[in-house]
Design goal:
Blueprint: E1 15-21, E2 26-31, E3 36-44, E4 52-58, E5 67-72, E6 87-94, E7 100-107, E8 119-125, H1 139-154, E9 157-162, H2 180-186, H3 199-213, H4 217-225, E10 228-230, H5 250-272, E11 285-289, E12 292-296, H6 314-326, E13 332-336, H7 346-353, H8 359-363, H9 372-388, E14 393-398, E15 405-411, E16 417-423, H10 433-441, E17 448-450, E18 456-461, E19 478-485, E20 490-499, E21 507-512
Parallel strand pairs: 8-9, 9-10, 12-13, 13-14, 14-16
Antiparallel strand pairs: 1-2, 2-5, 3-4, 3-6, 6-7, 8-19, 11-12, 15-16, 15-18, 17-18, 19-20, 20-21
Helix pairs in contact: 1-4, 3-5
């Protein structure tokens, strides 16, 4: 078994991860605690001695905690492009002392839509919080990371979507940066609590938090072994970030600036690349895998609650609209929403908001009155797209809710068509009490979705195949999405994979829709 370091042990001076991949290039992320000459080696895994080697001077920004990215081969003049649809290994070493920064693998993408494999698979996960209050790692959480890696390998996954909460600043509570007792251990001179910190101080604290949460071999192996596209969610800032009116205050603005900068250092930069002008206003992104398109919305960076609430900016919705127009001929499109559209009915959301301890959770849902206008605008855009492209599979992918589940959204009346929502959460975060109960039961309360001044849709919890019929599923899980090319259109298939109770590092498929 792999070692399970305690929270704060920090055996993490160096690391690598695979970011965006194209038909002929790859963006690699690294952290190295010593700048200077570094060497990258890249080789196709199916060819023995055709190893390429380049050297460069790694000079991370002073405030980036030793992190940075490189784009190969584009960033190295004279290097030939990589070949499409080919598996590669890579290794980064430090030339001065020979230290291995890290190694991993990736597969390049198809060069054209017509080159898309007849079947391809990718992974979906969210919510990485493996720690007990003592700082020890839950054995089940460490084992689930091994089960997830085995799952992705056995399904020949081409890439991985991480749709939020890749680390938690506020859990477990005893180790929360918002806990005065724990914050005193952070040693920020002259500060008694996190909200007194400057943006630069917040950035340093959140950078350290990333290293503390990512100091698990299983977690780092996933990131080094698969091209990963990551999206921000609330716990990378604070629980229910942006949904509370007070988050617009000056102290929270400093927290926003520092936390998002740290997120960009460790996550966003490997998707968006360097941003000389500073941290982007929003982290939404898109990419294509052959004939399939994927767009991820950022539901946190521009969110606000209160008198003028919004979940996303009009400009981001306009970018999505333009992207959908350009993808009318794609076989399938996936929209990543860190918070699932279908989860809890409006009446249940209002009821939960009366519970003071869970008021923020209710305000975070799409069905809260503050969020309904943005929800309906987004649904209206997707419905209009489906009417133009009736043969195209349209799928919403989500995390956040510590639950795996799948829904069909069947439009009624003349607005016929079906959209799917697939959620995978959590990969390592074990929950108990009201949160666990709510995750298992609230999805059963939402039966009908009604767009204001528009059509309605019937919400159907999907049946599974054979014994793989646990929907919803409340255990630790990773999602698997298969896309099948059927000529004029594609079909999709969703699987939730959990753990064997007797051998928790071994995966078990707990839910499988079959082809849709």
């Amino acid at each position: 078994p792999l070692p399970r370091p305690r929270f704060g042990d920090l055996r993490f001076p160096c690391a690598v991860a695979v970011g965006t991949v194209g038909p002929d290039s790859v963006r690699l992320w690294l952290r190295s605690d010593r700048p200077g000459p570094h060497r990258l080696e890249v080789w196709p895994l199916d060819a023995g001695n055709s190893r390429r080697s380049v050297s460069w001077h790694f000079t991370p920004a002073e405030d980036a905690d030793g992190t940075g990215t490189l784009l190969y081969p584009d960033g190295f003049p004279g290097e030939p492009p990589l070949a499409p649809l080919r598996r590669h290994g890579f290794r980064i070493t430090r030339e001065a002392d020979g230290v291995l920064v890290g190694e991993g693998r990736f597969e390049t993408f198809p060069a054209r839509a017509e080159d898309t494999p007849p079947v391809f698979t990718f992974g979906l996960l969210s919510c990485h919080q493996p720690f007990m209050s003592s700082g020890d790692v839950f054995p089940a959480s460490a084992a689930m990371l091994e089960a997830a890696r085995t799952t992705l390998e056995s399904h020949d996954a081409r890439f991985l979507l991480m749709c939020g909460d890749q680390m938690y600043v506020d859990e477990p509570r005893a180790l929360s940066l918002f806990s005065p007792r724990f914050f005193r251990r952070a040693g920020v001179a002259g500060r008694a609590r996190l909200l007194e910190c400057s943006a630069d101080e917040v950035r340093r604290l959140y950078q350290l938090r990333h290293r503390q949460f990512w100091d698990l071999p299983g977690w780092r192996a996933l990131q080094a072994g698969y091209p990963s596209w990551l999206m921000l969610d609330d716990h990378e800032v604070v629980n229910n970030w942006g949904a509370e009116p007070e988050h617009s205050g000056p102290a929270w603005r400093r927290l926003d600036q520092g936390s998002r900068a740290a997120y960009f250092d460790y996550q966003g930069s490997r998707v968006l690349g360097p941003c000389p002008a500073g941290v982007p206003d929003t982290f939404d992104f898109s990419f294509d895998y052959g004939s399939t398109g994927i767009y991820a919305m950022d539901l946190r960076s521009q969110r606000r609650g209160g008198e003028q609430p919004r979940v996303y900016s009009p400009e981001q919705l306009a970018r999505l609209s333009t992207w959908l127009d350009a993808h009318q001929h794609s076989r399938a499109v996936f929209l990543v929403l860190s918070v699932p559209m279908v989860y809890v009915a409006s009446w249940a959301s209002m009821g939960i908001s009366l519970l003071r301890s869970h008021r923020g959770d209710a305000r975070d849902r799409w069905t809260h009155p503050w969020n309904l206008p943005d929800r309906d605008r987004l649904l209206g855009l997707l419905l209009a797209h489906q009417r133009r492209c009736p043969e195209q599979r349209v799928v919403l992918l989500s995390g956040d809710v510590h639950l795996g589940c799948a829904f069909a959204i069947d439009w009624l009346g003349d607005a016929r068509g079906t959209m799917y929502q697939f959620t995978s959460s959590a990969v390592t975060h074990l929950t108990h009490g009201f949160s666990a109960w709510a995750a298992r039961h609230l999805p059963r309360t939402e039966l009908l979705l009604k767009v204001e001044d528009g059509p309605a849709a019937r919400l159907v919890r999907m049946d599974g195949v054979g014994d793989a019929d646990h929907n919803p599923y409340g255990g630790l899980n990773v999602g698997v999405i298969e896309v099948h090319d059927r000529g004029a259109h594609s079909t999709v298939r969703f699987k939730l994979v959990g753990q064997d109770p007797r051998h928790p590092d071994q995966p078990v498929t707990v839910f499988d829709t079959g082809e849709l």
